[in-house]
Design brief:
By secondary structure, the protein is mainly alpha-helical. Helices cover 82% and strands 0% of the residues. It starts with a helix and ends with a helix. 19% of the residues are buried. The longest helix is centred in the first third of the chain and has 26 residues. It contains four helices and no strands. Helix 1 packs antiparallel against helix 2 and helix 1 crosses helix 3. It has one domain.
């Protein structure tokens, strides 16, 4: 039961980190990828400080990795037909 609880807590932390990253992107407070990296690196640290659980911090980092891979695959799938010709002009 504790694994299921920790996995669900970690997924909430990871989703919150991505939500914060999206809000920071929309707000334009930082430039470049700093805002994304900052919010994704800080989330496991804050989760560890909040729950005092190393396992939960590792699970948060794992969920973030899964979400990043899913976002990269979705972006690659979106450009599969264009073969990046639109970028070239």
């Amino acid at each position: 039961m504790t694994w299921l609880r920790d996995v669900s807590k970690a997924s909430v932390w990871a989703a919150a980190a991505f939500l914060v990253a999206i809000v920071l992107v929309r707000a334009g407070l930082f430039s470049g990828v700093t805002r994304l990296i900052l919010s994704l690196v800080v989330a496991p640290v804050v989760a560890y400080r909040w729950h005092h659980s190393r396992r939960l911090a590792v699970l948060v980092a794992g969920w973030e990795l899964v979400l990043l891979v899913a976002a990269a695959l979705a972006l690659a799938w979106a450009f599969r037909d264009f073969k990046f010709r639109a970028i070239q002009g």
